[in-house]
Automatic annotation (TrEMBL):
The lineage of its organism: Bacteria, Pseudomonadati, Pseudomonadota, Alphaproteobacteria, Acetobacterales. This is HU family DNA-binding protein. The keyword Acyltransferase does not apply. InterPro entries: Hist_DNA-bd, IHF-like_DNA-bd_dom_sf. Keywords: DNA condensation, DNA-binding. One of its GO terms (molecular function) is DNA binding. Pfam families: Bac_DNA_binding. The keyword Oxidoreductase does not apply. It comes from Pseudoroseomonas ludipueritiae. Belongs to the bacterial histone-like protein family.
Length: 89
């Protein structure tokens, strides 16, 4: 799924221009990202839940040279599908 796909669905659904649909898709994605930053997660009923999780710093290995590399702590996004989505797919 891409932003262009979302814009096309919005355009077909409400009959607006492509520019307006693209802006609506951009605003939708931006608001989801803002909510995840603010609350650490986002839920779409009957679709699933996105959660932000922290990752610990760890040691890795450069696959080309085999040298050990330090990997910094960070954040990642996890998704858990709702039972309705699992049933539909």
């Amino acid at each position: 799924m891409s932003k262009a796909f979302l814009a096309q669905v919005i355009q077909d659904s409400i009959g607006c221009t492509g520019v307006a649909a693209n802006q609506a898709a951009s605003d939708l994605v931006a608001s989801i990202v803002k909510e995840m930053k603010k609350k650490g997660g986002f839920t779409l009923p009957s679709f699933g839940t996105f959660t932000v999780r922290k990752t610990k710093a760890r040691k890795g290995m450069n696959p080309r040279t085999g040298e050990p590399v330090k990997i910094k702590a960070g954040k990642t996004v996890r998704f858990k599908a709702s039972p309705n989505l699992k049933k539909a797919v």
